[in-house]
């Protein structure tokens, strides 16, 4: 490996490659911050553009978009409660309450540092341990994916702020909605009512935009500003320091993101929710989560950016993309005539290690840009709602329509928005609903495939070592959450 470092660094110092990293990161931040425009879309659109470039320049450009896009999702999530990407949905739980308290600049600073360290730690893992970690990821089969989805669903208990019954009902509603569309095992259509647009299930991004964005618009109509009085000047926001005690949360989130990211099909959204759950259950001040705790922002952001390096581990070593963005990146590799596998680390070692090192530079670029521009972003919250509401509405409509160029998605987004508003007012959790909607298909597919493997015996979920480990972690996470709710109920009775 060391023999490729100097040639890789030499190629990386090419001004054209450095410009590609910078421009890719900036484009990624902008795309990530726009609801509905994802890093996958941006990378896929860039593939034809990179055809005429040298391989390292093209891959560095796409790597910059990937890193910047994963970070950019936090900006709109924190300031407007409108996640730019699905992976930033968990960031809104504490990021937006911080904005409403006038701490939007601090929340963005926390998100920037957490994203940076998440990206750096996962890239170090990619650089040093890629082959070993790739072999470990192959030990995950359908039973492990099912139990992993259950672990993610256990976050419903964490996300529930009031009535546990309403929280579980919200999660169950999300799981029911996730069954709409084609059965992944038998191919039968379910609850589609002959609507062709529902054959592939409920499109996730319009539902997410509706639940978080449209319901937020309806809330904002009752106020004149998100923040009544933002007294802090840009200079004072720049001087605001990172809250203390976030190191362990960011480290755990980065490791969770790296591990979950290298599991094909799992993705950054699941890792963010699992990391958030871990952070809340292990915190002494768990009651403050959901009300503006910086640890909530740090946990989700470090995990979703940790997925960047993690998802590239099976891609570069085995040719198995960890998520949709990595799949688009695989297209970029193939168009250059590069086949993922051992040859990338031997015959094309200088180019491959140059690409990995370019991810470090992309992380530094979005760190500098994020810290410098955070105060200016924070000023968005002082914009009158009379101007902000039409802006969010336009972004929501464009974001919903742009994914499939389909007006049905726009109507679906509006429907979910209105439903989400009344669910929130009724004390139900839209976060738990989203979790059920995301994890339902993964759990169902893993469950069905596992039963086929075991000839119908459910014992397959309790016989494999990794399944047992995941069950144990899930139970450990749920004990404090349930005990906390029972204590609150007992105190109310007393």
UniProtKB/TrEMBL annotation:
Pfam families: TctA (PF01970). The chain crosses the membrane at residues 20-47, 110-133, 145-165, 171-191, 255-276, 315-339, 351-374, 386-403, 432-454, 466-486. Residues 18-435 form the DUF112 domain. Keywords: Membrane, Transmembrane, Transmembrane helix. It comes from the Bacteria. The keyword Metal-binding does not apply. InterPro entries: DUF112_TM. PANTHER family: TRICARBOXYLIC TRANSPORT PROTEIN. This is Putative tricarboxylic transport membrane protein.
């Amino acid at each position: 490996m060391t023999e490729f470092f100097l040639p890789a660094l030499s190629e990386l110092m090419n001004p054209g490659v450095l410009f590609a990293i910078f421009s890719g990161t900036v484009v990624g931040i902008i795309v990530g911050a726009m609801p509905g425009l994802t890093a996958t879309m941006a990378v896929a659109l860039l593939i034809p553009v990179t055809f005429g470039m040298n391989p390292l320049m093209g891959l560095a450009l796409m790597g910059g978009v990937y890193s910047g896009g994963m970070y950019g999702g936090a900006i709109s999530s924190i300031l407007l409660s409108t996640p730019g990407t699905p992976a930033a949905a968990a960031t809104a739980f504490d990021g937006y309450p911080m904005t409403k308290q006038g701490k939007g600049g601090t929340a963005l600073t926390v998100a920037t540092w957490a994203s940076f360290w998440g990206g750096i730690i996962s890239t170090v893992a990619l650089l040093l341990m890629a082959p070993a970690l790739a072999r470990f990821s192959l030990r995950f089969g359908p039973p492990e994916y099912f139990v992993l989805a259950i672990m993610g669903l256990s976050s419903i208990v964490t996300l529930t702020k009031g009535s546990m019954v309403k929280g579980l009902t919200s999660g169950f509603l999300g799981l029911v909605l996730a069954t709409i569309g084609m059965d992944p095992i038998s191919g039968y259509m379910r609850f589609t009512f002959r609507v062709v647009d529902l054959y592939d299930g409920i499109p996730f991004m319009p539902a997410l935009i509706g639940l978080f964005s449209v319901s937020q618009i309806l809330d904002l109509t009752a106020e004149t500003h998100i923040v009544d009085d933002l007294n802090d000047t840009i200079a004072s926001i720049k001087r605001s320091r990172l809250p203390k005690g976030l190191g362990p949360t960011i480290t755990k989130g980065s490791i969770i993101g790296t591990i979950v990211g290298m599991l094909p099909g799992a993705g950054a959204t699941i890792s963010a929710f699992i990391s958030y759950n871990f952070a809340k259950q292990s915190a002494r001040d768990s009651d403050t989560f959901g009300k503006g705790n910086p640890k909530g922002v740090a946990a989700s952001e470090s995990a979703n950016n940790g997925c960047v390096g993690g998802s590239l581990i099976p891609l570069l070593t085995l040719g198995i993309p960890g998520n949709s963005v990595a799949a688009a990146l695989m297209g970029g590799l193939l168009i250059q005539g590069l086949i993922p596998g051992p040859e990338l680390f031997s015959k094309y070692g200088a180019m491959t290690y140059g690409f990995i090192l370019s991810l470090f530079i992309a992380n530094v670029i979005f760190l500098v840009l994020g810290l410098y521009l955070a105060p200016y972003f924070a000023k968005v919250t002082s914009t009158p709602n009379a101007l902000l509401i039409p802006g969010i509405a336009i972004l929501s409509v464009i974001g919903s329509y742009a994914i499939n160029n389909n007006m049905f998605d726009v109507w679906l987004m509006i429907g979910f928005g209105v439903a989400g508003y009344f669910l929130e007012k009724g004390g139900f959790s839209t976060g738990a609903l989203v979790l059920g909607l995301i994890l339902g298909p993964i759990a169902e597919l893993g469950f069905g495939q596992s039963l086929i493997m075991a000839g119908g015996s459910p014992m397959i979920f309790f016989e494999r070592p990794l399944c047992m480990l995941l069950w144990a972690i899930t139970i450990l996470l749920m004990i404090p959450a349930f005990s906390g709710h029972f204590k609150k109920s007992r105190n109310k009775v007393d």
